[in-house]
């Protein structure tokens, strides 16, 4: 049993893969149990949200995917992204002593620079979900970034000014994720909502979400972002990209 308890009890520690999401999906399709974790030292084709790439330098970061089998509807899957973001923030605070902020829905930032993200991919029959793969990428000890990311990206080592023990962070992260996921499964999004809000920086800021331009005014009870436009209309944003228009 790992310190992560049930999450990570079955842990595949791999070297180089295309994407831990793909490996986890294949395992899930062969009935791997909930809480199975696939971690890798390097991804050749790491995936981010919105079809973007997730880049890493081999052996420096945390790249992992967790298989979940929640009894939820497909429409609720985005809530798991918020659950995982809270778990990442909490783990970083505990292990590194820094207090990350969350940008809706899945960006974890320190001093406005992104150091981690969550990618949630589900299979469903259109309504009920059969499995969800939650992928988490954390820039842990990476100190150099491609030029196009350099102004917006950071790592825990850069923010802290010292390297971070990746395995310790991984194990604490898995135990936090297990706890928040357990609360979510038992009680729904309600207990996660205040914790996400406490750590969020999006609410109160001007944002652009697709065609909607306005101010993020709140997180709805189900995890949707409420954005009020200049005409005073409130829009519910449930998925997609939200750009911070204040920057
Ligand atoms: C994002 O912020 O766009 C989400 C990034 C998610 C990256 C992680 S790394 C582990 C897992 N495998 C992937 O290919 N992507 C996720």
Summarize the topology.
Layout: E1 11-17, H1 20-29, E2 37-43, E3 62-68, H2 77-96, E4 101-103, E5 107-110, E6 113-124, E7 129-138, H3 156-160, H4 166-187, H5 192-199, E8 206-209, E9 212-219, E10 225-229, E11 234-237, E12 243-244
Parallel strand pairs: 1-2
Antiparallel strand pairs: 2-3, 3-7, 4-5, 5-6, 6-7, 8-9, 8-12, 9-10, 10-11
Regions with little confidence, pLDDT below 50 for 5+ residues: 1-5
According to DSSP, the number of beta strands is 12
For the record, the CATH class of the largest domain is Alpha Beta
CATH topology of the largest domain: BirA Bifunctional Protein, domain 2
Hey, roughly how much beta strand do the residues contain?
25-35%
Distance between the termini: 45 Å
Principal-axis shape equals: globular
Largest sheet: 7 strands, mixed
Total domains: 2
* Secondary-structure element pattern, one letter each: EHEEHEEEEHHHEEEEE
Q: Quickly give the structural class.
A: alpha+beta
Radius of gyration: 17 Å
Helix content: 25-40%
The CATH superfamily label of the largest domain reads Bira Bifunctional Protein, Domain 2
The CATH architecture of the largest domain can be named as: 2-Layer Sandwich
User: What is bound: which ligands?
Assistant: biotin
Let me know the average pLDDT. Answer: 94
